[in-house]
Amino acid sequence: MSQTATSIPQALIARLQQMADRQADLQQMMNDPAILANSQRIVAIAREAGQLTPVVSVFEQYKKAQAEVDDLRNLLDGTDKEMAELAQADLPAAEARAQDLIEQLKDQFLAAEDNAVDSFFLEIRAGTGGEEAALFARNLYEMYRRYCEKSGWRFEVQDLSTADMGGFKEVIINVRGQGAYRRLQYESGGHRVQRVPETEAQGRIHTSAATVAVLPELPDVSINIDPKDIEESGCRGGGPGGQNVNKVETGWFIRYKPTGLTFKITELRSQGQNKERAWSLLRAKLFELEQQKQHAAVSASRKSMMGSGDRSQRIRTYNFPQNRCTDHRLGGQNAEAESGGKNFSLEKIMAGELGDLLDALIELDKQQRLAAL
202: exposed, middle or buried (C-beta count within 10 Å: 0-12, 13-18, 19+)? Predict the structure, then answer.
């Protein structure tokens, strides 16, 4: 396939063709009587096919548009002057349509990968700064809650540990909704706040921190866990359900011995639900650790402004005296820079108006991922 004046990477074309071939295979599977008899498998196949349909549809439109451009260009070089003139008149519009479809393809291609995750855990932990850090962790929780509510996504607390002044030492939330992971996946990392704490009598500005992790809930990912490495038991809950949760063991505690990871899920109504969610969170956490290992290997040969998502990496500063929220990954600076980045209105950000900031991060990630192809 020839390239337009504004070309599309051939590596992307190859990936798109693979997706088109995969969708064709899935369509054949859905007509297989043996597969139709397996309700669980047919649901998984239909879901995957549905995720591929938008990008494959645009890809087919692009191939037709590109073929039209190629035909018009061939007519320009032909001996029929009248046809050449007609082709010359039609070519700009045809090229513009092909270019528009190229941009749609880039967005759809990346969205297809991200939208495969329809549920994830948002983990917020207070960092350095004591009670002020815990209060900031609660501020972040409220910021994400407002944004998710405005977006129509489910936002459910799974585990919560509070501090003395009402802040959050740690909170784990399960977020579900179409497009939620695509928008919030870049929140992993260190978040720094600069403001005068409520406990500060002399009006001095303090710097505190919290960390955020975004952990995809991927039920189809196989994580090998040796039962000997697990310590688990029922525990008393403290979530919805009235007095019953405090009298019986409705919660579930799980500890993974090799890493010391522990989870205590108490917010759901039954012990079975809490146990299932605790295991899901453990698998997501182990999957994140494996991803970090893989990223470390890749980053040795290629740097990425988006970073690894490691929570030790400072990605954003919230400066209350200046009403400024600065994302250090934007504006050509990396997350380790002391200054630089792109500024946003802190008042709007804390009110859950994250659209402009997340749009900028998605565009940056788009350029990097396409370049990596």
Answer: exposed
On whether the 118-304 domain is CATH 3.30.70.1660, my answer is: yes
Give residue for tokens 């400024």: 324
Interhelix angle 39-76/81-114, nearest 10 degrees: 150
The angle that helices 10-29 and 81-114 make with each other, rounded to 10 degrees, is 70
Find out whether 281 and 174 touch, Cβ atoms under 8 Å: no
Nearest one of 288, 268, 287 to 278, comparing CA atoms? 268
**CA nearest 327: which of 80, 319, 335?**
335
Place of tokens 């037709």: 64
The phi, psi pair for 307, rounded to 5°, reads 80, 180
pTM score, whole prediction: 0.70
Residue range 251-267: mean pLDDT, rounded? 88
Q: Tokens at residue 67, please?
A: 């073929």
In this structure, are residues 177 and 148 in contact, taking their beta carbons and an 8 Å threshold? yes
Q: Residue with structure tokens 């998605």? A: 362
Q: What share of the chain is helix, strand, coil (3-state, %, to 5)?
A: 50, 20, 30
Beta partners for residue 252, in sequence order: 234, 265
pLDDT at position 67 is: 93
Residue from 134, 125, 122, 112 nearest 49 by CA: 112
CA–CA dist 267, 159 (Å, integer) = 6
3-state SS track over 163-201: CCCCCEEEEEEEEECCCHHHHHHHHCEEEEEEECCCCCC
**358 CB-near residues (< 8 Å, 6+ apart):** 183, 184, 186
What are the residue ranges spanned by the domains of the chain? 10-114, 118-304
- Judge whether 285 and 262 are in contact, CB under 8 Å: no
Q: Which pair of tokens denotes residue 246?
A: 């405090």
| pLDDT confidence of residue 312 | 61
